[in-house]
Amino acid sequence: MSSVSADAQQYVPDQLASAQSKVAxxxxxxxxxxxxAVLKSAPAVLAExxxxxxxxxxxxxxxxxxxxxxxxxxxxxxxxxxxxxxPVSTR
Length: 91
Description:
Number of strands: 0
């Protein structure tokens, strides 16, 4: 889980917190030697942890697209705004 924590913390913090909580519960069950609970819960917890990387990557891609669109919009509008506020003598 540590390999995806940085991106997951930035892009899907709620999912990361949920996965960390479930891993902690699983670890507590293991420490109590409640192996039946570990065997029962481990597949779902593993799937959730493995899904963090994909969820973080998808959210990151979405954000990059949004920022790209915003940049293109600014790149088009800022030069027009600068031209509009230049003094008449410099035009």
